[in-house]
Every structure is written in C-alpha cells, then in structure tokens.
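Lab meeting, action items carried over

1. Structure of the two-component assembly. Owner: GW. Status: complete.
Input record:
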Amino acid sequence: MWKYLLEKEFKQFFRDPGLPRMALMFPVLMMLVFPFAVSMEIRNINLAVVDSDRSEESSRLLERCTSSGYFRLVAFCGSPEEAMRLMNENKADAIITIASDFSREIGNGSGFPVGIKVNTVNGTRGSIASQYLQNCIMMYLQDRNSREAGSSVQSAASAPAAQSVSAGPAINVSEKYYFNTHLDYKLFMIPALIVIGITMITAFLPSLNIVSEKETGTIEQINVTPVGKSAFIICKMIPYWAIAFFVLTACLLIAWAVFGYVCRGNVLWLYLYTTLDIIVMAGLGLLISNYSSNAQQAMFVIWFFAVIFMLMSGIFTPIASMPGWAQAITYLNPMRYYADAMRSVFLKGSSPLDIWYDAAGLASIGAAMVCWAIASYRKSS
Amino acid sequence: MNAIEIDSISKSYGQARALQDVSLTVNQGEIFGLIGPDGAGKTTLFRIMTTLMLADSGSGKVCGLDIVKDFARLRRIIGYMPGRFSLYQDLSVRENLDYFATLFGTTVRENYENIREIYSQIEPFADRRAGKLSGGMKQKLALCCALVHKPSVLFLDEPTTGVDAVSRKDFWTMLARIKASGVTVFVSTPYMDEAAMCDRLALIRDGVIIGTGTPEEIISGFPFRLLSVRGRRMYPLLKQLRKTDGVISCFSFGDSHHVTYSPEVTGKEQILAGLAQAGFGDCTAREISPGIEDCFMWLSHGNGNGRQDC
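Predicted assembly:
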C-alpha cells in the first residue's frame, strides 16, 4: 500500500507540466545566477576626476584609484562644476578634485588639497564608494611615504611633512579575514542560497500539494478509505524530501564545478542539518495546509513566512546588527539555525559539536511544529 | 439487520443548524433516496454517515457498525461517491481505479465482475487522464472507484446533479443493477422526479426529515385533491387561485399551476366558476394525482397551512 501511495505521488509529480523542470532548473538557476545578483560587493563605481594640478604626483594618486578595480574613470573634467553636472545626471558616482597646488603642498607638507564628493542617493553604494576612495588615498600616501623613506637619506626634510598628513605609517593595521579571505560574497551566499532553496521545496510545495487535494476534494475520497492519514501525508512529503536532497547535492556539485568552492567541513553534516531542517519544514508545511482551505490562502501564508524567515535569518543582514528585540525574534526562526549551520560547516568546517546549538534549535522548533501540526490535523478532521 | 440506522442526529455549523434530530432506517438491499432541495442538509448527513464528520449529538450504525467507534472497520465496507468529481484528474482512468483498489487492499482483477458492467463502458479510455473525460464518463469512473472494493453500502451524494436527462436515466438503470447485486444504495438528489425510482425515500428540508416511506406511501399520505390549472395570464391567475376559498395552496409547475384543495369545501367546477367570475374565463382544469413534488411542497409548508408566495 505504501509503495502504491508513493508511486502515485511520484507519478503525479512527473506528470505535472512544471514541477520536474522546476526541480531541475532551481538549483542551476540558484547557483549560476543568484550568487552574482545578490552580491553586495560594489564594483564599477563611476569616477569623475577634476585634476587642476596635472602633475606626476596627481597622476600617481589617480592611478592608485583606478587600478583598484573598483572605480571606472568616466571623465576628466576641466572644472568642478562640470563634474558636479555629471553627478547630477547620474553619470558619476564619485568625484575626486585635485587642487592646482597639490604637488607643491604635498611636497612641502603644508596640506593635502584633495576633495572627495560621493553620490549617496543609494546609501550603501555611496558609503562603500567613499570608503574605497579613502582607502585608495591612504594607499597612495603609504606608497609615497615608502618612496620618501627610501630617499630620506638624501632629503630628511621632506619626510616629516608627509608623515604629518598620513598620521604616521609606523603602525600598519592589516586586516585578515578568516574563512573567506577575499571577502568573496558569492562564497558567503552559496550556503545561504541552498538554505532558501531547501526550505521552499520542503515546506511550501508539499503544503500546496495537500491544499490542492483539499480543493479538488480528493482528500475526502481518501479519508473514506482505510488508509491512515499519517501514511497518506508522509507519502506526500517523501518525494519532496528526495527532491530536496537532490537539489542539495546538485548545488554542492555546481558550487564545486563552477566556482571551485568546496565544503570545508564534512559534507555529511550538511546532509544532517538538512534532514533536521526538513523535519521542521514538514511540520510547518502541514500546519499551513491544515489552516488553509484553498491554495490562495496557503500561498499568502507561505509568502508571509518565506519573507520573514529570509529577512530574519541572518542570510542577508547579520543578526548581530539587529536591535535586541529583533534578535530575540530570530531565535524562533528555523532558518536562522539552518543558515548558520550550513555556513559554519561550509565555510568554517565546523562539526556538530561546534554548532550543537543550531541542531538543538532546529530540533526543538521541529518538535513543536510537528506536534502542533499533528494536533491541528486531528482536530480539523 | 438494517443496513443503516440513524438515531436523532443533529449538527450545527456555528449558528446555522444543518441537521435537527434526523432519524432514518434503511433496509438491506434497497435503494433509499434522500430527497431535498439544495441546502437541506443532505451532504452533511452523508458526511456524518461516511465517518468524515462527527455529529453534535445522536448516534448511527451502518451495517451494524457504529459510525463513530468503528469508523476504521466501517470504511472498509462502504463506498462513497461525493457530489463533486473527486478523483485524480492527472492520473489515468486505470491508474485511478488501481489506486483506489489498492487503498482498500484489493485489486481490480479480484473485483472485476463487480464493476464489469460499468467499467466496460469506459474501458476504451483506460489510458486517458481522468480530467480529460466527459462528465458522464467521469461519473462512471467515480462509480467504479466507489464500487471497486465491493462495498456493502454505497453512498451516492447527488450523483445526477448536472447530468443530462439521458445519462440520468442510464444512471438509474445502473443503480438498479447495483442493487440487484445485493448492495444497499443510499442516494440523494434534488430532483423530485427521481424519487419514484427509489424503493423508499426520506424528504428532507432545512435539516428536518419531513416524511419517509415508499413513494406510494408518501403519495397516498397526501390528504387533499389536486387540480392542474392552465390559463393565459398565469401570474395573475396564481394570485387569484391563492385567494380562492378551499384552496390550500397553489404552486407553479412548469406550464400549469398545481392547486391543492380540500374536497369538503370546494370542487373543480366551483373553482373554475370562481375564476370565471374574477375574469379568468379561459382557464382549463384537470384532476391529477399528486406526485412526490406535490407531497414535498405540502409537507414542507408545515402540512398545508402555508399559503405563502413562493
């Protein structure tokens, strides 16, 4: 009987015009398109330059900026007004203005007549652009200092002048990022995208499937047969679990083949946490289908949960930077634990011993969900 | 043993009372019809009897099994065909049938004799998806699926609603054959003309059973006489008839009015004379014997005290 129930679900799944294709396309699309699209790295900042000095020093500074790869030099402007006009027309994101006495002042150490203007209509882009630009200038000054230091034997007089500008190069803070050394946003997002995909497949597709059986009345027809409801529901979910593991495997393979990313930890742990997440999501999916009588209702509830789960999971914005009350809410969010676990295993190579709290969180939410779902399922029948 | 025994079952949906003190007895091997208009509570009663829903109060037995306590055993021996087509539209005819046979722990081959007559009509389309069948075919498939495990009692909820006249006739012929194979059939319908095909019936209205018995018993219980009146100006005629002395009620039935009158007070000639006096000289009247629908109308208006507009 179980075999036949399962056979029927698989038959229906593969007969659906969209579902099998979607299951195949989903991981591909997710891994090949989204990592680029959701990247928070900002490149190609349009830079306008007003260089009134036109000296060797000023061109060194500009070269520093353009060689960083973040900026794209769009115009050399004759006047600050012209540059401003470009910014107003949204053709330039940042303007760097170098005054005519730049090389003289920096040479004798009396000042640093460089101005930066950044378009912050898009706040994130603006603040990152100004950060990058300042970094470039700092790097230029460091270069200059080291050049000066090399020649300081001959002319000791000019060294203190440069130092007064760069606030002393004696302490050199160098940042080193662990686990994601190059701050590669794609690497950071890939485990999170897997999390989103698995959640969608295991929670929302089965619940829509159950609701559609409700809508067509077939569930009544099943209810008058001796088949137990739990057997029926579990058989409904198994195909989606199979798809979830298929998607997980496909995503890991694509990450390896296309981006060269390999899971740092034991891949087994990824599957373990995915299994835990699947249990939570099965409960949630059943719960949603119990409380909605048609697909439209279910869709809306699903959409609501999907958005909240994603925004409150730390996938896009770090949980640590949320206000306290919002952080408290995230403890109820299963995606928080799952995303944390997947990133820890994938990026850090954690083992369940290191992230036992994620397992505990998922397990307790899962237990509550499943119990609630079963209780409400009994009641509604 | 009676096939179905229902004892004072009540069910409410919030404020709305769907069933009030419904009691019924259905004999083994008969076609029992539940006749009533839409919203009378027919489907609710079906859902309670097929263990899909719990009654607020009252008890019931189907084939001697309690509908609450023995629901698991009961589900093996009843067949239920809901009013709406509820099979898998994306599975083929054969797959649907196989599926339901398997759910009941049997196979189509084992029970082929049981459904052969109906199934043979849709067998040429066995590989077609159920969703692509015509209405009549769907209905036959649903009937096959409800019969595939050889149930003792077959519940059919409005099987002929939305089906054309020819298919309806076919369907009742099929029911007669199913009955002949020893299955008790409990069928509901809003069509009064189908009532005559049942062995016994119950008339239901607003959740209350207003009459039970064989069709003959119900018709013979009609205490008045009936005239079929035709005229040219039908609506003013209806109003005039309702004002006439001795007329219990008058309803429009297709192209004529059925006038219920008490023979002690008035008669056909007297009514016609009254009509002529009121300016309806062109009327013709004919004595007719009452049908189920006339009985239903009389019973549903509180045994004849209603002279209300319909």
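2. GW to write a short summary for the group page. Key points so far: Confidence is low (pLDDT under 50) at residues 304-310 of chain B. The interface with chain A takes residues 50-52, 72, 75-76, 78, 80, 82, 84-91, 95, 98-100, 102-105, 145 of chain B (CB under 8 Å).
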